[in-house]
Amino acid sequence: MIEFDHVTRTYGPKTAVSDLTLAIPRGELFALLGPNGAGKTTTIRMLVGLLHPSRGAVRVCGHDLVKDPRAAHLHMGYVPDEPCLYDKLTGREFLWFIADMFGMPRRLATSRIDREIEHFELGEFADDLAESYSLGMKQRLVFAASLLHDPDVLVLDEPMVGLDPRSVRIVKDLLSARTREGMTVFMSTHTLAMAEEMADRVGIMVRGQLRFLGTIAELREQMSLESTTLEHLYLEVTSSRSRES
Amino acid sequence: MTTRSVTPDAVRLLSFEDESRLFMRLRATLAWETVRSMLTDARLRLTLVVVLSGLFWAALYGLFLEGFSFLDALHAEVISLLFNAFFSSLMVMLVFSTGILVYSGMYCSTEARLLLTLPVRAETIHAHKFREAMWFSSWGFVLLGSPMLTAYGVVRHAEWPYFVLLLPFMISFVIIPASVGSICCMALVAWMTRLRMHALTIGVTIAAVAAIWLGWTMFSQTNVDAMSAAWFERTFARLAVTEQKLFPSWWLSSGLIEAARTDRGGGIAGQALFESLTFLALLVANALALQLLAGWLARVAYRKGFSQLSGEMPSRRQRRLRWFDQALGHAGFATGRPLRLLLVKDLRLFRRDISQWSQFVIFFGLLGLYFVNLRAFNYNNSYASMIGYLNLAVVGLILSTFTTRFVYPMISLEGRRFWILGLLPVHRDQIVWSKFLFSFVGGLLPCCLLVLLSDSMLGLPWRLIAQHEVCCLMLCMGLSGIAVGLGARMPDLRESSPSKISSGFGGTLSLVISSLFIMSVVVVAAVPTHLFLISNTMGSGVVAPNGILAWAGGPWGATAGVILVVILGLTATFVPLVLGLRAFRRLEV
User: Fold this and answer.
1) What is the interface pTM, i.e. ipTM, of the complex?
2) Is B315 touching A (CB cutoff 8 A)?
3) Cβ B13–A70 below 8 Å, yes or no?
4) Per the CB 3.0–4.6 Å rule, which of A49, B40, B158, B363 could disulfide with A65?
5) Any idea where the domains of chain B sit in the sequence?
6) pLDDT (tens digit per residue) in A104-127
7) Cα torsion for B565, B570, B576, B580, to the nearest 10°?
8) Is the pTM of the predicted complex or chain greater than 0.90?
């Protein structure tokens, strides 16, 4: 579903992502981890088509994000780290705008909008202007919008920022259910506990390179640490890179 | 487990027409919600905007009606030159303003980041942001151009087709320079990403040099009296440079002049109307062709340009004025250090915010250019004095827009960072005083210099110059006091956008009070001087043989005027400041 094919991205003389090759199959929840400046945001931005790779290609459901971005976007939902809404639209109007953008038939759009409003408990404020929303409310609305069209691929950039514990639980349950149904999730996060709890595989990026790719069990095996937390393993991987440099 | 289909039936890619309709609906909803929230939350602002715009339109209409009547009687052939000069300058301004607005809308906004991750065509996003940019850059043309062109039609006794064709002419004309600006912007970002600022600087410099050259050649070495027939002849001969047949400005002015023509009996002139429609067709065809070109360019270059711009390394920190910041921070006694450090912080933020200082430079620069050209006119004494006071009012009004737009929101924005300032050993009063000093000192020097320049060019006596400088000092103090005081009295701690803070109720109130204060100062200072000059030139008994007017026009009248100005200035400074300080001390964040 998601393919990074020898992807490199440079910012002037600096290489943000170096020769990234990664394939994520259908129904997998993949968590991309790494310290600040590791290249996670650049990777996410290339995946959603905001940045073009300097070399290589990124594909979603077989569609190249540079050559055919619209076809790729049709299969995707995206929750950015900073929610972007129209201040002068109500939550419901924003959901309708997104549904129309994906060309959803009227009746289906109505039922999906009602479904997501119920899932994310938006009913109380769905008809208020977005300018009156708190960060958590905005984030819930963006989640609802990204899932309206039942995307094949959901891209999440720091998804839990601003969400209260109940909303976090709702999101986790939804992600588990949707991945069981076949949706692929690509998530960048600093919340290691969430990655440990939910991810099928994790990737750890350090200075633009994928230092580790696999399950947490494989990571434990590789680090020769039998019973320890992901936080411990993560710190081991990222600090070993520091020692090398 | 994997039951989902890769190509879901529930979604589809929209056609171009569907996308356009969707965005049209979006714009209509956003516009309606904006108007609705203004009607409920910002009635004062909306009323002021409508009333002032109406007054401005009516005043301009009256002015143009007089002007065209005068020109029609004496110099009818110069209308075409005048239109060409006006429309060609406007064309250049529209290219730059739309280009800059398209840049911020398409490459720097969060909305663009959202839209680029949705299955929508790049050309649709461009069309959406282009319309927004064109509206923002051309409303001034509508406000200025509509009274001018209506007045022209009335003076020429034009028939109804002229008035019907006005709007299509204006819209099709505006699209041309706006499209050129948008095309240049997209091309610069996509293919000259790193050199875009250099290219823009070169373009602006060329336009500025051309404007200065045009102004200089028009008004320099003119030793004849202003508004005389000889002056008109020389001035319009120099304006002929703007009359280029390949410019859309020529098509527009020719089309409008033809549309206003009537036959001998005062009816519609068929041949002239046909000519006019030909010019309109030329404008429409070019506007459509440029829109097609812009759409094609958006398709091939927008996503690429956005990516390249996002991939730019941040610019290196400017350290050239660090010595000045350090000197200011460490000068004086230790007790005043926190206040000076707050000043240094505000100064750094101002220097690094291009939107603030660039507007400051552009407005005061244009005003300076106008003042320099005042020398070209020969005025008699009372006329020069009146222009001097009007110039003082203009300097004050421009300063008031800056204090309202940039100084008024400063306290609100500081309130959001209270978790930083609240933990520092800084008294709240010092925060308010630092904003006042920043605004007062920052505005004083350019304003006093501009007033000095204006008065010197007008050849005013030193006593009048000194009086104007005192007025200017009081204006700077008062306007800073009003903006900072009201900003502290009515802070908006939830809002992070300074433009939204300044456009709220408090910002509007600050602008209204500032305008009233400026008018009061100028009237109080100008009336005694004007009466004194009239008495001097026409005899002391002309104004009034005795009573208050005679006293006001006498030698003590001007002194009393200055004293009143000082009282007004101190009141406008300290009353809002004291109110603001009290409120800010009690503020709970």
Assistant:
1) 0.90
2) no
3) yes
4) A49
5) 77-310, 353-586
6) 999 999 999 999 999 998 988 899
7) 160
8) no
